[in-house]
Amino acid sequence: MDYLRRQSFRSKLKIAFLAVILLSVLMTGGLSYYISAATLEKNALKLTQDTVVRSAQIVDEKLNKLMLIMMTFMISQPFHDMLKDAAAGDTSRYYTHLNDLDNVFSQARIAEPLIQSIYVSTPIGEFYPSSMNRNRLTSFKDTFLYGRIEQEQKNIWVEGHEDMLFSGKDRVISLILEPIFDTPVSGVYIVVNIREDGFRKLVQGDSGAGAASFLLNAEGKTVYPVKEPLVRQAVDGGNLSGMMKSPEGNQSFDLDGKTYLLNYAHLGIADWTMTTIQSQASVLKDMVYVKWLIGAVALAAFTVTTLISGAFTRYLLVPLQGLMKVMKRVESNDLTARFESGSGDELAQVGFRFNRMLEQIVVLIGEVTEAETHKRTAEIKALSAQMDPHFLYNTLNTIYWKLNLKQVEPSQKMVLSLSRLFQLGLNKGQEITTLSKELEHVRQYLELQTSCYEGLFHYEIHVREPELAALSIPRIILQPLAENSILHGFRDLESGGRIEIEIAGDGERWVLAVRDNGSGMEEDQVRALFWQESEKGYAVSNLIRRLQLYYGDSAEFYVDSAPGRGTEVRISVPKKGEH
């Protein structure tokens, strides 16, 4: 903040331009990145969801095809004949049935290459393709497959496992069916083993780079072993099944501090769920290029703005720089200097009012010069129109720096106060004014001084009888007293000064009192006020001479002062003066 205070107004304006433009670019870029990322993630989820639903339909169609093939198998004549003997418990034609069913087994496996093997368990013996080697060490009733069918009593799909019925220990997924027959047949079960690796390829399909597709069962476990560590970690967490309550959908979840996207769709023929998991970072990897693009645009905008803002700042400061040049000429006592501008903005208005102020100063000086040719009028005007150069310099200098700090409104108020001060002081060439105008004159003077000496003092003006405001009075009576309070009474103060002006009537006379809480004066200093001429500003002796010119011996002047308790000056004059 101190760095900014030390900068010129031009630099501050340029920094403001750059800050606003840079902030706008960054906000726009950030919002664009956020919207792009959200849209890309939404589209990726939708695209993946469509893929998952399509994959689920493909798997459903494949499983339906398997079911249809097995239905065709169960309504074939060889299978029907075998079931009749199984229902009757006739084992005499076992080998005939085994030979007849071998052809049906082959047809089913040809119709669906995913079928690894088909096994039929009956009370009259086991039936399976002759090309398969039966694992004689394991009975069907000793396998967990038999336990599942006995427990659930329905056609079931069994997750991936090692084939226990045939040698080779191949990984398979099993479908266990009960036969379709005219009369109920107990103890007959059909086991269809599907190649796990072929089924896995079917499920994974075209899931895309960075996405892992797999099947979950109703308990939230994978239908077949999955190699991806991400899938194993997500499944072991046990939260996936709780996220997939609706038939299909998508959502995001956090795992090890990273965000992942989940898509799923339930199968229709089995209580399995097609699931896909992919990293949000992999989906948004293309946004890296968007980040760099936004950064490049921001840098380019900042560079262009830096060039443009310099020219724009110079253009905006042309009126202010012109006004500064005029003020410097005025400081060098060149009152012919005038501000010129073709603009009508606030800075130009300040300059034009400064011109009017200079014109009024010139008029005032002309009036004083003309008044010197007249004896009594010249003496009065010479005394009343004295203008303290130090006061004018302080006032103009304060206006200059307030304009330099872009405090336009306070500067305008000071210019108007100074203009009003001169207007009231001149009083259209008339030496007699009203008390209300004289109070307005001293109020404008005190307003200017409070702006020049900020925090040094405050003032109060009290008129006890409102009718006194219309009384006649010589102009510029109160301002010299207020000036002495500021220049001498508050000389050693930095703050806390107080000036009180009170107007009160007393029969045929009325009193003007000016009080301050300044440093006060010794008795010899009070006596000297009546005789000494002031080097700057108005001397009290001059004020006494003017009062004598207007009121003769009827004017009374009192000074009450002591070191440390301030000064009070009272002027008592008749309500009708001697002119």
Cα distance, first to last residue? 61 Å
Mean pLDDT level: 81
How is the biggest beta sheet arranged?
Answer: 5 strands, antiparallel
Enter the CATH topology name of the largest domain.
Answer: Heat Shock Protein 90
Count of DSSP helices? Answer: 19
Strand content: 15-25%
Q: Provide the low-confidence segments as ranges.
A: 377-386, 534-538
The CATH homologous superfamily name of the largest domain equals Histidine kinase-like ATPase, C-terminal domain
Question: Percentage of helical residues?
Answer: 40-55%
Our Rg estimate from Cα atoms comes to 53 Å
CATH class of the largest domain: Alpha Beta
Report the count of strand segments: 16
| Secondary-structure arrangement, i.e. CATH architecture of the largest domain | 2-Layer Sandwich
Overall, the morphology is: rod-shaped
Query: What order do the strands of the largest sheet run in, or round the barrel if closed?
Result: 2-1-5-4-3
When the domains are counted, the total is 3
What structural class do you assign from the helix and strand content? alpha+beta
Element layout with pairings:
Blueprint: H1 2-6, H2 9-74, H3 77-88, H4 94-111, E1 115-122, E2 125-127, H5 144-152, E3 156-162, E4 171-177, E5 189-195, H6 196-204, E6 211-216, H7 229-237, H8 240-243, E7 248-255, E8 258-266, E9 273-279, H9 280-283, H10 287-316, H11 318-331, H12 346-371, H13 375-384, H14 389-404, H15 408-426, E10 432-434, H16 435-452, E11 457-463, E12 472-474, H17 478-489, E13 497-506, E14 509-516, H18 523-529, H19 540-551, E15 556-561, E16 567-574
